[in-house]
Amino acid sequence: MPKMKSHKGTKKRVKITAKGKFVVKHSGTSHILTKKKRNKKNKLKKDFVAGEGSARKLRVLLPTGEGR
Q: GO CC annotations (predicted)?
């Protein structure tokens, strides 16, 4: 059976915590920032833990637990 390979793009964008949760960055921070409020932009700076539905998909993309 061939090796399980990690998705390299996901590996660069996602960090796995010690308990196996996935930490990702918010979207919407690159352009069209003039119409967004300061509080919104400050909240988008912080990373967040992916929900359970997204975590299932990320486990498929990172089967070996890389990204630590």
A: cytosolic large ribosomal subunit
